[in-house]
Amino acid sequence: MKGAGCMDFERMRDLMVERQIIARGIKDERVISAFRNVPRHKFVPRYHQNDSYDDCPLPIGSGQTISQPYMVALMTECLNLDAADKVMEIGTGSGYQAAILAGLCTAVYTVERKEDLLRMAKNIFRELDIANIFTKLGDGTLGWEDNAPYQKIIVTAAAGMVPQPLIEQLGEGGILVMPVGGVFSQELTRIRKKKGQITYELICGCSFVPLIGKYGYKDD
C-alpha cells in the first residue's frame, strides 16, 4: 500500500467529483467547483489519508466522522447558497464542510462542542488560509445568537426535531438543512422560513451521529 506522501490526491479528488458527486446528480457548478478546490485529505487523520476520497464517511476521532463526500455535496446544494449569504454550521467536526461553504458564501459561523476537534479544524483553516470561517466552542443546539440572523443554517448531526433556537436564528426567507429522526436513521430535511411560517421538505434517508445538547440528545 502506498504511503500518503505517494498518493496523487489531486487525481483522486477529480475522480471523487466525477464519480461520486456529478454522477449522482449534483448540478450546481459552484458546489462542484468547491469540491474540486478543497483538499479533503487535509481534514482526515494521516492514517486515513489514502482513503480520504473514498465513497464513505471516515472516523476523525472523539467518536465523530467526516461525512461521505456525496452527502456533504447534497447538503451544500440543498442550501441554495448565494455569495452574499451568512451561514451558520452546527457541528464543525473535521472542518471539511465549513471549508466547502467558505468558498460559496461571505462568512461561515461554525459551532463545535468538542475542543480537540475544533482545535484541529482551526489549524487546518489556517494552513489553507481560509479567513472567512469563524469558530465557537459550545452547545450547537443553542446556535450562535450574537451573529443572527443567518440566511442559511446547516446541521451536521441528527436530532429528533429542529432545535428551536436554530429556527429563531434563521432569517426571513432562509433555509436550514439537517438530518431529522431517530438515533440510527434519519431523513435529510430542508426547512424554509417564509413570513414566519416553517415548512419541511424531506430530501432522502441518511445516518448521522447524534446532535448532543440542550435541545438535542443528552451526553452519556
Structure description:
This protein has a domain at 61-206: 3-Layer(aba) Sandwich (Rossmann fold). The chain is built from six helices and nine strands; from the N terminus they run ααββαβαβαββαβββ. The protein has helices at 9-22, 29-37, 69-78, 96-102, 115-127, 164-169; strands at 58-61, 64-66, 86-90, 107-112, 133-137, 150-155, 170-181, 186-194, 197-206. The longest helix is centred in the first third of the chain and has 14 residues, at 9-22. The chain has a seven-stranded mixed sheet. A two-stranded antiparallel ribbon has the order 1-2. The chain has 220 residues and is of the alpha/beta class.
Helix/strand layout:
Blueprint: H1 9-22, H2 29-37, E1 58-61, E2 64-66, H3 69-78, E3 86-90, H4 96-102, E4 107-112, H5 115-127, E5 133-137, E6 150-155, H6 164-169, E7 170-181, E8 186-194, E9 197-206
Parallel strand pairs: 3-4, 3-6, 4-5, 6-7
Antiparallel strand pairs: 1-2, 7-8, 8-9
Comma- or semicolon-separated keywords:
220 residues; alpha/beta; 27% helix; 27% strand
- CATH topology category name of the domain at 61-206: Rossmann fold
**Termini, distance in Å?**
38 Å
Specify Rg, calculated over alpha carbons: 16 Å
| CATH homology superfamily of the domain at 61-206 | Vaccinia Virus protein VP39
Proportion of helical residues: 25-40%
Strand order of the largest sheet: 5-4-3-6-7-8-9
So, CATH architecture of the domain at 61-206? Answer: 3-Layer(aba) Sandwich
What is the CATH C level class of the domain at 61-206, in words?
Answer: Alpha Beta
Structural class: alpha/beta
Poorly predicted segments = none
Molecular shape: globular
* Whole-number mean pLDDT: 94
Question: Helices and strands, in N-to-C order?
Answer: HHEEHEHEHEEHEEE
Give a count of the beta strands, DSSP E runs of length 2 or more.
Answer: 9
Largest sheet: 7 strands, mixed
- Portion in strands: 25-35%
Counting DSSP H or I runs of 4 or more residues, the number of helices is 6
